[in-house]
Amino acid sequence: MHVVVIGTGIVGVCTAAWLQRGGHQVTFVDRLPPGEACSFGNAGSLSPSACLPVGMPSMWKKVPGWLLDPLGPLTVRWPYLPQVLPWLMRFLHHSSPREVERIATAMRQLLAPIFESYEPLLARADAQHLVRRTGCLYVYSSREIARQWQWGMDLRRRLGVVMQDVEQDELEHLEPDLQGRFRFGILAPENGSTLDPSELVKALHAQCERDGARTVLATATGFVRQRDQVRAVRLEAGEPIACDGVVIAGGAWSAQLTRALGLRVPLETQRGYHVTVNSNNLALRHTVMAVEHNMMVNPMAKGLRLAGSVEFAGLTAAPNYQRADVLLQRSRDMFPHLDVSRYTQWMGHRPCLPDSLPVLGQVPRVANAWCAFGHGHVGMCGGASTGREIAALIDGRPPAVDLAPFSPGRFA
Ligand SMILES: Cc1cc2nc3c(=O)[nH]c(=O)nc-3n(C[C@H](O)[C@H](O)[C@H](O)COP(=O)(O)OP(=O)(O)OC[C@H]3O[C@@H](n4cnc5c(N)ncnc54)[C@H](O)[C@@H]3O)c2cc1C
C-alpha cells in the first residue's frame, strides 16, 4: 500500500518505519520538519514504568489549588477554563481507583515492549547511540512523603514493573550529585532515555527517506473520500496526495483531521515546559524524577534537561515562560552547585485524552484510515510500540497488544 502518514513526530516516524518493514510505501505530510513539535523538547525518558494515568485518585481535592496557583505544577489559565471544564470533568471521572487500574493495565501492555520495539528501528538507522538504559530514580524528601504515592507504586509493581526501594545512604552512592537533599528513592532499573528526542526522530525519519519515503512539507486539511475509503489527502496548498491509506499521527492537532472523517475525540493539550541547562557540570547517571515537584531531570547531549509542568491554555495561547523559570529555580534548589549560566527554554503541546490513553486503531466507518495519536506524557515511550501495532493492523495481522482500550470510537 501507499500510506500517507500525517505527522513527523516520534509517533508518525516510528509508524512509517514499521510500515516500511512490512513492505509499504510511505509519504509523510507535515508542516514542520521532523521532530520539531512536541517530540522536540520532551524529557526523553523511555520508561516501561510510566503506565499510570495523569489523573489519579483523590486528585479532585487539588483542583481549587490548581486554579489559584498560576505557577503550580498543574494549572488552568482562567480564560481557558470554560472551554476546558467538560474535559476536566471527564478527566476526573477517569481518576477513580478502578479506572486507574484499567488504564494502567492497558498502558503497561503498550509500554512494556518499549525497547524491543525501538531496537530494530534504531539498528537500521544506526541510531543506537541515542538511547541508553541507565534506569530512573524517583526521589522524595522522605519515606513518609513517598507514602502519598504508594498506591500508584504498588499498582506498578502488581503490573510487573521492577521498582526497588532505595534508602538515603544508597541514594547518595547512586547519585552523589543529589548531596543528601532527598532521603528516599525508588529505582526503576529497566527504564532508559534518549540523549536527544529530536535527533532520535530525525535519525529515524532520515532512515525512512533512505528506505524510499517521500516527505511533503505542507498542512493537511482534509481528505478526498469515496464511500468508506480515503482516496487522497488534501493540502492547504497544492494538489491532494493520492493514497491507499492514511495514518493520522498529528499529535495535539489530530482532532481537526479526525473530524473531517466524522470522528470526534476529546483531544486536549497539556502544555509542558523545559529548561535545558547547556553548561551541565553534574555527573548524573540516571534520569531523576523529583516526584514532589513533578519534574524530570535528564542529562542529555545538549546539557541537563529539566522538564515538566502541566498547563491548560489551548493550542494558540503564548507560552508563559515563568513556568520554565520555576523549573530552573527548582533545579537550583536540587543542585545548588549546578552552573545555570547558559540555558534555553521551550514549551510543547502534549496530546492528551481524558483517560490518558492514546487513540489507536481504525477510524470508525472509514476502512483505510488509522489513528495514532494522543500519547500525552509518554509519546516517546509509546512511539515505537504504537508503530508496530498500527503496522500490524494495516497488514491485517493480529496486534500484540489488546487495542480495545485505545479504540478511536470509545468516546462516541
Ligand atoms: C515538557 C514535556 C516533557 C515530556 N517528557 C516526556 C518523556 O520524558 N517521555 C515521553 O515518552 N514523553 C514525554 N513527553 C510527551 C511527548 O513529547 C509526546 O507524547 C510526543 O512527543 C508526541 O509525539 P507525536 O508524534 O504524537 O506528536 P508531535 O511530536 O507533536 O508531532 C505531531 C506532528 O504532526 C504535525 N501535524 C499536526 N497536524 C498536522 C496537519 N494538519 N498537517 C501537517 N502536519 C500536521 C505537527 O506539525 C507535528 O510535527 C513530554 C512532553 C512535554 C511537553
Q: What is the topological layout?
A:
Elements: E1 2-6, H1 10-21, E2 25-30, E3 45-46, H2 63-68, E4 74-76, H3 81-93, H4 97-111, H5 114-125, E5 131-132, E6 136-140, H6 143-146, H7 150-158, E7 164-167, H8 168-174, E8 184-188, E9 192-194, H9 197-210, E10 214-217, E11 220-226, E12 229-235, E13 241-242, E14 245-248, H10 254-259, E15 268-277, E16 287-290, E17 295-300, E18 303-312, H11 322-334, E19 343-352, E20 359-362, E21 369-373, H12 379-395
Parallel strand pairs: 1-2, 1-14, 2-10, 4-18, 6-16, 14-21
Antiparallel strand pairs: 3-9, 5-9, 6-8, 7-8, 11-12, 12-13, 15-18, 15-19, 16-17, 17-18, 20-21
Helix pairs in contact: 1-9, 1-12, 5-9, 5-12
The protein binds flavin-adenine dinucleotide.
Note down, in words, how this protein is organized.
- By secondary structure, this protein is an alpha/beta fold.
- The chain is built from 12 helices and 21 strands.
- The radius of gyration is 21 Å and the shape is globular.
- The two termini are 29 Å apart.
- Flavin-adenine dinucleotide is lined by residues 6-12, 29-32, 36-39, 42-45, 219-220, 249-253, 257, 272-274, 296, 307, 348, 350-351, 373, 375-381.
- Residues 6-12, 29-32, 36-39, 42-45, 219-220, 249-253, 257, 272-274, 296, 307, 348, 350-351, 373, 375-381 line the site of flavin-adenine dinucleotide (FAD).
